[in-house]
Amino acid sequence: MKFNLLLCFLLLLSGIVFGQDCPPNIGFENGTLSGWKCYAGTIKNGVVNMPETGPINGRHTLMPNTSPQQLDPYGGFPVNSPNGSNYTLRLGNDQAGAEMESVSYDFKIPSNRYSITYYYAVVMNNPNHPPDEQPRFSAKVEDVTGGPATQVYRSSLDCVNHDFVASSGLTGFQTTGSGNNQIQYKDWSPVSLTLIGYAGRTLRFTFTTNDCTHQAHFGYAYLDFEENCGTSLIKGNNYCEGTNEVVLTAPSGFDSYAWYTDNFTTQVGTNSTLRLNPIPADGTQYQLIVTPPKGLGCTDTMYASISGLAQPFKLNIAQPEILACKADGADITAPAITAGSSADMAYQYYADPDGQIYVSDPKRISTSGTYYIRGTNTVYGCTDIKPIKVTLADGPTIEWTPPLAVCQPATIDLTKAVTDAKGATISYYTDQIATRPLLNPTAIDKTGIYYIKATSALNCATIIPVSVIVNQLPIVSPKTVASCPPISLTRAVSDGDYTGNTFQFFYDAACTLPVKDPDNLTDPAQSGTYYYRGVNSSCPGSPSTVTVTVYKVPSFTVTDPSPVTYPATINLADTRPDLSDAAYTYWYDATASQKQITDYRAVGQSGTYYIKATGISGSCTLIQPVHVTVNAPPEADLVAANTFTPNGDGVNDFFNPTTTGVLSINYLKIFNRYGKQVYETKQALTPWDGKLNGQLQPVGTYYWIFNCFDIYRKKTITRSGPITIIR
């Protein structure tokens, strides 16, 4: 009966202390996003389109804890939370596209004093857009119960709401890169929240990331929850049998700590831990005020009550000093290290004696030093922290010489590369972690990276990569090339060859007479058969042939024609010689490819023209310029006397003007002094005999008007002047 009463008391106590667990899977520890709502969409031009989608891998990505730990490619910090949990959520990715992601979790607060901690890390491009167009990360906690409040709330939710917009000088952020490639990142940070007066209320955690709205820059975050929720985040207030000292440990990540007793009347400490020796009486109350970095959380008050339990408890470090190899690292989570400890223990691993700095990868300690293991009884909450010293030994030093490259069919003896193993055992492998033995280390016949492993007496190993080059002999085949000069033999045989081989050319099959200038064959007399071979890193292969035909290029010169005056023309065919082995064409452009001259026999405009000769055999071409000068004629005009004597004596009886320039006549009109027209011609100038309708016109002064079109200058000309009839 007494045993049953004791058991009931212990179960009740256990329920009081540890029964208020974290909400199911809030820390992703079952390896899924069960219990979480997932959203994904876009943000463009200030418009958010982000429906609930369920988990999308790559946008709502669970990152399992691995050893060695995976590092963020930009910030270089571990992608897994420092609290040692099994999974972390990466929200978003580094693929820019104006993407937006969000997750939310709703849960009901079980008591009027409830504490919870989450961790986050952020990576964002900073392209210096306006704030509403920048990448960002936000965290929000809100009461979504609805209806009238029935509690008097004593703690605010606002101070744990964060909205980080990429910009210079963000608190707690570091910068890498520059310009539009600048990255701002924040390593893992904890946020602890003590909720007072929220029993029965439903709270919602919402976390959101988005890229820049221009689809060119990204933003993403990592998220995890501490699997330790309940009335207080202070560890160590419960102690079991055999304990001589109580150490109260506060959550990490705050700027300042202030410990009080006697209901805040006496301050007893300012560190993250408070050591109590001798142990105070059961029920002694301690209060702790924690202040976070500015703008990164809430000033919070936490409480702890000293409670002694009549239960055995022992944290035993069976191996207080361990020796391991640096290449492998030390695993301080091995069960043998804590063998002999009490049952129902959970372990955490730290780099400091106060249990504030988590070891990110306790399965692979890579630096010698003293570390700390905290053991906590998961039933009663009794806890202790003890040191373990880790010493990492280097692997043996190997002295070696890189093997020289060889040509097939020769092989390489890798065992001769090691010149001094310092007493270590040597073995050879094909993979960098030395799991696949090399079967023929004395006769390697294939190029590649191989690995030499030296193992010391302490079983520490050094593995070095060794590059082995066994050059293959190039294989070439017969080639044929027929082209206009210059012909490059290298280009002819290497077209489509992507091996990186070089080539050698010879006149003879024995490859003793090298071709002096194989990439500049210009004379048809150089047509014939040549011999060539490929060379791979000084390893020549067997020769083959390349048959070459060098086509003849037409040869001619042009003679610039003598200048002419418009409307005379130039026959371009008269400027070049006749060729029996080529055909001519005539062009306006220097490449002789864009605009051909159709009437090359009557070129009437000054300029440079081009004559192209195309060989009948091989279509080789030669282009020569010819310079044509066609001078302008005089401007169109009328040349006329100012008097004439139409008296029939045969002397100066007609008004007979002439013209200059190249023109077409529109009309020649003559008027008397009263403005009456007495004469007109519209074609060739016909002499005026001084008559109108067969009647001689009176002596006096008349006026002529001449109108024509200047064909060369393409304009209309009008001239006028007096003409006097004298008898």
From TrEMBL:
Pfam families the record matches: CHU_C
Claim: Signal is one of the keywords in the record: yes
Signal peptide: 1-19
Domain of life: Bacteria
Keywords: Signal
Protein name: Gliding motility-associated-like protein
Organism of origin: Mucilaginibacter yixingensis
